[in-house]
Write a structure and sequence with these properties.
With 150 residues, this protein is α+β, with helices and mostly antiparallel strands. Helix content is 41%, strand content 19%. The structure holds zinc ion.
């Protein structure tokens, strides 16, 4: 397995075991629900927006290790960012997860999130990894219907 593949495993395991920002956020003024029927992952993303800034973020729900780890890393990476910055990270992640060929994807500026380029090796897991990001975007845009990866 490649070094990135190994790092990927470690980060996923760590964030699955100890998910960051895993709680219901009482003060949330934005929220969205996401569902990945393919795997059964279900999560809610809570945002506390202050103007255009994500002052606080949390998620709650149940799912596989990848969906949980991805949500955990997502909350870490956008906390304190503006809506625009969060959308830019979303775009990069989207390219990273759906990139073809996956090895050539630009991961600059993504920091720890770059480990998700390892997901390309497991196509069935792409929806698990992207669920948190689609749900984040729905919360930012205040989309009322639940997000589905289908
Ligand atoms: Zn999953």
């Amino acid at each position: 397995m490649s070094d990135l593949g190994e790092l990927y495993q470690q980060v996923i395991l760590d964030h699955n075991k100890r998910p960051r920002n895993f709680r219901r956020l009482e003060e949330a003024n934005h929220r969205a629900d996401g569902h990945n029927p393919l795997c059964g992952d279900q999560l809610t993303v809570y945002l506390q927006m202050e103007g255009d800034v994500i002052r606080d973020i949390a998620f709650h729900g149940a799912g596989c290790a990848i969906s949980k780890a991805s949500a955990s890393l997502m909350t870490e990476s956008v906390k304190g960012k503006t809506k625009l910055e969060a959308e830019q990270i979303f775009e990069k992640m989207h390219k990273l997860l759906t990139g073809d060929p996956c090895a050539l994807v630009e991961t600059g500026g993504l920091g720890k999130l770059a480990v998700f380029s390892g997901v390309c090796e497991f196509p069935v897991r792409v929806k698990c990894a992207s669920l948190a990001w689609h749900t984040l975007r729905a919360a930012l845009e205040q989309i009322k219907e639940a997000v589905s990866t289908e």
